[in-house]
Amino acid sequence: MIWVAIILLGGVVALDATSFPQVMVSRPLVAGTLTGVIIGHPVEGFVIGAALEVFALGVLPFGAARYPEAGTAVVAATMAWHAAENGGVAGGPGILMLALVFALGWERVGGSTITAMRRWNERLVARDVPLGAAALERRHLTALSLDFLRGALLTGVGALVGWPLLALAGAHWGLATGTTAGVLRAAVALMLGAALTVFGGWTERHWPFLFGIAAGAALVLFA
Predict the structure, then answer these.
(1) Residue 193 has pLDDT above 70, yes or no
(2) Fewer CB atoms inside 10 Å of the end CB: C or N, the chain?
């Protein structure tokens, strides 16, 4: 039942990104936390989602722009982490970092499926059929259903692909816990710095940026 719930969540997350209803469920932070609640590990789901949220801050899905789909990727990666851990792989920062790396790759796959879906929607609209209200509604519902199925399939396949990959890589993870945690912090800090332009740039946000540097340095030195 957990797999069914995760796959259905993936479909909802895919719909929420652009189709319906756009209530921010598709944001990695929310999607990861919801996945964690479903699998019984809300903290780990939140951690994976929060890290992916930082990486997604600089992505602005406007118009016909091509962009990676982080929402379904974080659901798939969190489920893959859970399955790998239940299979005997030791938990900790190492496997969480591997889940994050897998999610960053899988969101590119999700982005390519969005492009393919747009092409399909073009053909759906361009069909030579009179566009009355009923016909337009059917096409709209068809497009929504296809987007849901796309997200559900993408999430299920991603979790099944990520599961053995995380199990294999996690079994051979050689970095110490402290080193792995430090790498995660550095990666998140770098992406937060790169996203500064989204919030007004250095001129308007230099004090929060400097405070963030100080806080990050304190974490590295004293955590």
Answers:
(1) no
(2) N
Give the tens place of pLDDT for each residue, 91-122. Answer: 566 788 888 889 999 999 998 998 888 888 87
What sign for the dihedral angle of Cα 188, 112, 61, 14? negative
Q: Which of 48, 23, 63 lies closest to 102 in space, CA to CA?
A: 48
CA angle (53 as vertex; 210, 222 as ends), nearest 5: 45
For residue 115, the enclosing domain spans 2-174
The secondary structure element, H or E, covering residue 64 is none
State whether 199 and 169 are in the same domain. Answer: no
For residue 111, what are the CA distances in angstroms to 66, 73, 105, 150, 152? 7, 10, 10, 11, 14
Left, alpha or beta for 48 (phi > 0: left; psi -120 to 50: alpha)?
alpha
When pLDDT is cut at 50, 70 and 90, the band that residue 190 belongs to is: low
Amino acid 80: pLDDT? 93
CA distance 157 to 145: 18
* Whether pTM exceeds 0.90: no
Instruction: For residues 150 and 202, state if they share a domain.
Output: no
As a whole number of angstroms, the distance between CA 183 and CA 101 comes to: 12
What φ, ψ does residue 16 adopt, rounded to 5°? Answer: -65, -25
Residues 162 and 191 both lie in one domain: no
Same domain? For 142 and 179 the reply is no
Cβ-contact 43, 92 below 8 angstroms: no
